[in-house]
Amino acid sequence: MVKTEDISSMADGWTDLFKRSRFVPAPTQTVRLAAESLFTRPHGFQLSLNRLTAAHLPQEEQDETHQLRVTLFDRNHQQFFGTTWKSSTQKMKNNKIYFNQVLYFHTSLLLPSTLVVLELVSLSPRPDGSHQALGRGFTVLELFTNRTEALTTDGDRRLSLHHGSPRGLLHPLLKDTADYSSLLKIIDGTHLSCGVKNHRALVSVMHLLPENVLVSGDENIPGLAVSPTGDALLRPQLLKMLPFTLNRLTVSLQPSLQRFESQLLQLINADCHNTKQPGPEGTLRTVVIQERRLHVGVHNGWCFLDNPQVVVLEPRASGVRGQEDSSSKQSTLVKDSSATPSRPQTLGLRSSLELRLTNHQALAIVFQLEYVFSAAIGRETTLSATSTSRAAFLQSLRWGIWCPFQEPADWKREEIQLVLQGGAKPNPHGVMVYSTAVSSKPQSPAPIPAAGTAQDTITFWLSSSLERKASSPKASLRTKQEDVSRQRRSPSSPSKGQKHIQPASPPDSPQGPGLSLSQLAATSRYPTISHSSSALPWQQSFPSLLHPSPLASAHQLSHVACSAVSNIAHLEMDLQRDGDVLPLIQDEGDQLQELPFTPVHAPVITLGMNVPSSCSVSSRSSLAHLFSAGFPDIVDCSGQVAEVLDPTEPLPFDPRREETDLLQGNLLVFQFLAFTRLPTASVGPDWPENIYVTFQFYRFPPVTSQQLRLLTSDKVHHKAGDPLPCILASINKDGTVNTGSPGLQLQFRVDDSFLRSGEKRWFLRYLALHTMHIDIWDSDSLLLIGSTAIELKYMLRQSKPAVQALHEVEVLTTDYVGEDTLLASTDMGRRSASSPMKVHTIVRGRLHIRTGNIGCSVDNSRRRAANVMPSHSHIITPREVTSGFRGGRLSSRNIFQLNACFNFTARNAAQAHRLEMDGNRVSLFRRRIRADTIKPEEHNLKEADSGRRKLSCMAAVHQREGKEGAKAAKVTDRTKEAQLCQVQPSEEHSKAEGIASMLSQAITTQHLLYASLGSAEYMEFVLKNPFNVPQTVSIHIDDPELSVITDTEEWRYFKALTKTPTPLEENMFHLEDGAPGPRVYLRPKESIHIPLKYQSFLCDHTMALQGPSFLPPGKGSPVAKKNLSNIVAAKTFKVTFKAEDSKPMAICQVNVEPTPHVVDQTFRLYHPELCFLKKAIRLPPWHDPADGDTDISVRCSDPNIICQTRMLVPGEPQDVYLKVPGSPSPHKKKFFVMVFTDKWMAAPSQIWQMYVHFLERVDVSCVTGQRICQSLVLRGKQAVRKVKCFSSHPKEIEVDPAAVFVLPPAAVQELQLKLQPWQAGSRFLYVNAVDVEHRRLVTAWMICLNVHRPVLSKAFEVCVPVGGGRGSSRKITYTNPYTKSHTFLLRSDHPDMLQFKEDKFQIGGGENYTIGLRFAASQSPGSAEILVYVNNLEEKTEETFCVKVKYS
């Protein structure tokens, strides 16, 4: 049994939180006014406190600090409420105090009377260690302006300080004052810079914090995940809640249940007698116990996570304990005093409770024992179980808390016993509790025992719902049926004072309805147990119907009167819960419950959340060295240097200035200047030597740069802690370095010849809101160094000729690290495959990039007509054709000219040509190829063999003029008629096809469509019935990506989105199963609009091989415009509208022109080959409280990849789940994931570019500090290759052979890996085999390390002083355990903190050797554990010492 004697020792964490989180409630009148104004839903807010200018303060005194204190204030009722938040203490510098803190709160009091009061306090130390606080002024922040408007402004505020103290706001003169500025005196030269805005992300964690409480992001809030940034409320993430079951609950009251309740009733009746308020006729009324209730809730020190559950307890005999300890099937409670053994001794709960908990040490389960008392109303003097007129009130008697995760005690499968307490102590429910220290009165039969002799306790069992084993289905069903039958036989109110207790193991208790005072006053379903009789001397009257008990507070009455505050679980409801389950279903077995499993998310940089900082951290000497390299300047069209923008300053953006810019063209420049290496434990100081970068800008194709050499200078002296940036220089094809032009410059020209109509505003929006993802690669090993991102908003010119900005961003990568495992651990082989792994972010370096935008003038003659014309209409109107076929043969030329007339609206008259078919056309007829299928490019009217056409023309002229040349024409006709006799059947068939083609072209309307991946293109086709009779038209579409919008809501959405002012009709289409398409009814001569939607989720996934490319310097833009990729396929399809006779009435031919899409984020994932990749990626919070829940859906561009998302629990974060089929190494797969936040998926909110690299997996298990060898096999391909192997951690993995070797075709080369890791846990390392001639990847391996900690031989402890820069020296004696001489090597897992006097020593057999240790100095206090390895010449560990270093 787990006993908890002292609450303070058991729940220190919860107690401290509870004491700090106590707050003053808001005025009830204000709460009622907010409810009447429909402000019942709380809103989250963020208040930023930046800088305070305090010119009135005296010069800085020694040890004097300043603090801001923030409190909420009700102006109408002149009352402070909530809590007082105190900032960290800061010192004043140059009359300015920088706080730079953010606090959060949520409130539903969105009224103008709600204010925020901020006070400046000076703190001076006292001799006893405390501080003396002195007010230095205060200010008032108004949050709301009126009832219908939330915030006045979402932005920065500048508040002036007033003289005096905030207590001055309580003065009667300020009551009902709307403007304090006229009565409060302003302190000259003082102001506070702050900002307030609506924080919608706080909605998901409002249940963890009480309303009107001010907190900061670093507060300890159980249930909220800790953020690595220190501000957990900026983007809050909830901890996972797991279900637990609380059962076999009993409450024991001292000295016994009967004597405790008798004593309690005696005190209440005596108190009622002292009020001297008898009934209307002088009768005396006795108070009896109506119900015994227990409140059970989960509290995090701030508030209850959910409304506490309320269950009804039953008196039990002494032998009855919980559910499974009952030996008999019923228990009798008799009022007769002679039956002492059968009297109830405890209160028990026959059902179980479901609680949801999270593993946090400050999370507590709160119990509150509450009794319901009642008294009869009327002339009756004797209470009975059938009384119908009663008054009821509630009283809290005991309460207690228990923190299940406070200590590592194993309470699972153990009985927990908790001591309950009472009295005037603060409790989570905020009610008055009956005290145990009441002195006994003389007439009391049994005084309450002294403290320490006996205590009131509650006993229960707590178990995880996921670990419970289901009982036998048949037995459970049989037990439930017996319980139901027994319940039906037993009356609701047993006679003779007896009450049946149901057998053990009932089902779980559902939450029942709450009880109000009127319900409690009605007849109880349980018999009333009264410990009073007519002969008792303390029988007194109850004052009135709703008169509260002297022990009850006003808070209790309001608490009970609201039926939604708590829930009641009645025992009768349990037995009917599963009564309707069929036996056949029970025989099939219970459903297995899924165990909680949290997958490791993709190690990526989440744009907009963890964007690397763009501020410059390099010293001035490093910047001077950087710009002495002579990079080309970014100049405007007139040759002036572009204006420099500071990336650390906010950039105002005005779209109108961009639209009115005279320079409509933009030449965007990216200059990659330098790369700063940062020391990393796993690589050398000169890594990397050569790099290349990959990125994608806007909808240009992805860019892969050429090799860039990192140039260093030996002439410049610098400190070890300030690494110099390495200048980037491009490498030519022959391997030489282009030192004449440092850096790499790429240009992208965006003007009217590149942009589509209306696209410029989208391009400007892209620059203003997006960040560009950049991957940096090692061009030697083809390993990913890291990724970074730059903000593109500093490329907005804002009507300036040219702008530029210098970015210095961190290059980040991630590393998986699992839990440490001891080598001698007994459960090492039983580790779960789903054990959690931590993802660490590593800074690999800093990239220096200069971005610029040069304004260019646009030649009006080169501007496309589509850009000059207004935006393209979404309405497709068929043009009426006035010209037609004017006679003559149905030759291909006439059909071609007629088609051109219809397609391009030409109105030229066509002469009738008697052009015969030539030999080529005859061959076409023989092959059954239609004439109208020949493209205009293939059918050239000016082809070389035009002699026959000339002869035909001459024959027609001779015939017209009546000359003798007509005979020659007739001879020619006879010759050609003889040739055509062979193909006469085909010619007759071609006539029908020609007529049908001519007629179809007459009713065909062309429509050009620009489509991009995932975006829905909306259009409406005007369909007209040309007949005088009604028609039912069926719509046939020959492409699945084009569809008819048949849903009225979807049609209305797209019309509003595209602002199409056309009529909308409900239920316009008739749909049938198996029909080729929807049908629509048209009246004679009626015209209607058919809504169409084209949307494609498929695109081209071709990509270049992994490795650097060759881009000529300064020619990045022309190369980027060629070979467009990542676009949907160009296609042409038709929409045919067929009448009832299945003949076409109208045809809409849609020509799709593909355009590349914008990539918002890039993910790179590594996975073993030929295995399914299953990954979950967390979505950012898109929930909008104003618009309700956001409908999030995802689509993938590859139909072979499973991509889905689902909302598991409302309010919880949402993930995107991917399942990607594997490929052989070293292939990589690319696809796109489109995230939609609207219901009808009009346009993707984000498009993710996914790269999956498939590698050969090698599993290795080893021990830290000890070398292990692993063999790999490299197989040759079709050609001879020069191969070199590289590893991601050269200091931990050595590859043999290390030099370049020749790999013949179909040959097998064995590679030896020598691994010597220094960090315990599960990790992933990579090895690449690279073709050094072509810089292409041959094979890649993923080394999955499972590194264990070694067995320690000895442990030492040493103290090193902080500062000084000298460190400390120590010695360790080592004895050679062998009988002969041996040579040993000394290794350390922290070479930066510990150095050896000698790394290698030789010692004779049995002799001693003194190991000299030199510990490096530290500038900050702390502690660290350093492992010292004594290895032999084969790097096998002989001994391992642990040295714990304390820096103090």
Verbal overview:
The protein has 1448 residues and is mainly beta. It contains 20 helices and 67 strands. Strands 23, 24, 25, 26, 27, 28, 29, 30, 31, 32, 33 and 35 form a twelve-stranded mixed beta sheet that branches. Strands 1, 13, 14, 15, 16, 17, 18, 19, 20, 21 and 22 form an eleven-stranded mixed beta sheet that branches. Strands 34, 46, 48, 51, 52, 54, 56, 58 and 59 form a nine-stranded mixed beta sheet that branches. A hairpin with a 2-residue loop joins strand 8 and strand 9 (149-151). Helix 14 runs parallel beside helix 18 (984-1002) and helix 16 packs across helix 17. About 21% of the residues have low confidence.
> Could you describe the largest sheet, including whether it forms a barrel?
12 strands, mixed
Q: How many alpha or pi helices?
A: 20
Helix content: 10-25%
Kindly name the structural category.
Answer: mainly beta
Compute the separation of the termini in Å: 43 Å
Relative strand content? 35-45%
Low-confidence stretches: 6-11, 147-152, 319-341, 379-388, 438-452, 469-588, 596-611, 823-834, 864-872, 882-888, 895-946, 963-969, ...
Total number of β-strand segments?
A: 67
Overall 3D form: globular
Mean pLDDT: 75
Computed over alpha carbons, the radius of gyration is 42 Å
Report a brief summary of the structure.
The protein has 1448 residues and is mainly beta.
Properties at a glance:
1448 residues; mainly beta; twelve-stranded mixed sheet; eleven-stranded mixed sheet; 67 strands; 13% helix
Write the layout of secondary structure elements.
Blueprint: E1 2-4, H1 7-10, H2 12-20, H3 28-36, E2 43-54, E3 65-74, E4 79-86, E5 96-107, E6 114-125, E7 131-142, E8 144-146, E9 149-151, E10 155-162, E11 186-198, E12 215-216, E13 242-252, H4 257-275, E14 287-299, E15 309-317, E16 344-349, E17 353-357, E18 364-376, E19 390-402, E20 415-419, E21 457-464, H5 473-489, H6 517-521, H7 554-561, E22 567-569, H8 572-575, H9 583-587, H10 620-627, E23 643-645, H11 655-659, E24 665-677, E25 690-695, E26 703-704, E27 708-711, E28 726-731, E29 737-742, E30 744-750, H12 760-769, E31 771-778, E32 784-791, E33 802-817, E34 821-822, E35 838-856, H13 865-868, E36 875-876, H14 892-903, H15 919-926, H16 947-961, H17 965-980, H18 984-1002, E37 1004-1011, E38 1017-1024, E39 1031-1037, E40 1042-1044, H19 1048-1058, E41 1069-1070, E42 1079-1082, E43 1087-1094, H20 1116-1121, E44 1131-1138, E45 1144-1154, E46 1161-1168, E47 1173-1178, E48 1193-1196, E49 1202-1206, E50 1215-1220, E51 1228-1236, E52 1246-1263, E53 1268-1275, E54 1281-1287, E55 1293-1296, E56 1301-1303, E57 1308-1315, E58 1321-1331, E59 1336-1349, E60 1354-1360, ...
Parallel strand pairs: 1-20, 15-22, 23-33, 34-59, 36-38, 37-45, 46-52, 52-59, 60-67
Antiparallel strand pairs: 2-5, 2-11, 3-4, 3-6, 5-12, 6-7, 8-9, 10-11, 13-16, 13-17, 13-21, 14-15, 14-18, 15-16, 18-19, 20-21, 24-28, 24-30, 24-35, 25-26, 25-27, 25-31, 27-28, 28-29, 31-32, 33-35, 38-43, 39-42, 39-44, 40-43, 41-42, 44-45, 47-50, 48-51, 49-50, 51-52, 53-57, 54-56, 54-58, 55-57, ...
Helix pairs in contact: 14-18, 16-17
